[in-house]
Amino acid sequence: MRSITAAIAAATATAIVVSSSFVIAAIPDTATKVITVCYSKSNGAMRLIDKATKASCNTKTETELSWNQQGVAGVAGPVGPAGRNGTNGINGTNGIDGAVGPQGPVGPAGTNGTSGTNGVDGAVGPQGPAGTGGDKCLAYPRPGNDLSGCDLHDVSYANMSLIGANLSGANLTGANLSGANLSGANFTGTVFTGANLDGANLTGIDLSGRNLTGTSLSGAIFTNMNFAGTNLTDARFSGLDFTGANLTGAILTGTVLWGANFTGVDLSGRDLTGTQLLFTNLTGVNLANTNLTNANLSSANVNGANFTGTVFTGANLYGINLTGIDLSGRDLTGTILYFTNLTGANLTGAILTRTVLNGANFTGVDLSGRDLTGTELIFTNLTGANLANTNLTNANLTLANLTGANLANVLWSNTACPDFTNSNTNPRCGY
């Protein structure tokens, strides 16, 4: 293709030379403006021919090539029809505002808007004269109301103000007083069984000797509350601060005290059977001779607490720090000591039947001669512990740490070893 193109260029040059030197033929053709050459198939030589003279190429040895020259421009054709209208352009910016026109006539009145929120209560007005034949127990609850002796069971005074009201001897069984302001009210002889006092303001209230069985006081507001002799069985006090409270003689069986703060409170000798004390702050609390049977102290803070003579049978002591505690001679039957820190604790003579010790820290603890038959010691830290003469029949020590432990004369029988083997097939668990 490149050689033919070059040949055409050469032929064009030749045509120019020939046309300027001779007037033998009209090349290019006068009518068609076509230049014709014969291209040699053997050597590539070209020769011009004038087709007007009937000249032609030898088709056996030559190839005929031809091309046009550009003619002169023709006259312009007629104007075509108009095209379709284009789309509208974007709107221009608004013009400057005109002058304000005259005020129009007044329109019809619109509908009333929604009512605004109530304003704060005004000061209490003077007491009016006593009515005749009225029932004071049906009066709308207000500060200073006399509701003494009224049967108000299941009534709802939620978020109402009863500041300084007289509720002595009233029956508030199952009543809803959540969020109510009861500061300074008189509750002498009032029955609160099953009432809801969540978030209520009890500032300055004396609840000593009251029956608050099943009452809920979570989030209630009070300081230095007097609960002396109060029955708080199954009551709920989650998240409350009992600092400075008087709980002398109070009944706390089954009471829910999650997250409560008892810092420095004297709970000695109390019956806390089944009491829920999860995440409770018992820092420095006196729990001497307190009954914690089946109580739940999971994750409680007991730093500095006094546990002299405390009963722990069946209690849940998950994750608490009992470092150095003296539990000698205590009955810990069924007690849960999951991940409890008992480093340096004294367990001499303690009863550990069915005690759950998984994950507990017994570093340096003397467990010599103890009967730990069937005891769960999974993941327990027994580093440096004294297990001499201990009965580990059917005990589970999977993943337990026995580094440096005294294992002299241990009774191994069907014991689950730390390395997942069994003492029946791996004598002495390999120790």
TrEMBL record:
Pfam family, one: Pentapeptide
Gene3D superfamilies reported in the protein's UniProt record: E3 ubiquitin-protein ligase SopA
Alphabetized InterPro entries for the sequence: 5peptide_repeat, Collagen, Pentapeptide-BTB/POZ_domain
Entries under PANTHER family matching the protein: BTB_POZ DOMAIN-CONTAINING PROTEIN KCTD9
This protein's name: Unannotated protein
Source organism per UniProt: freshwater metagenome
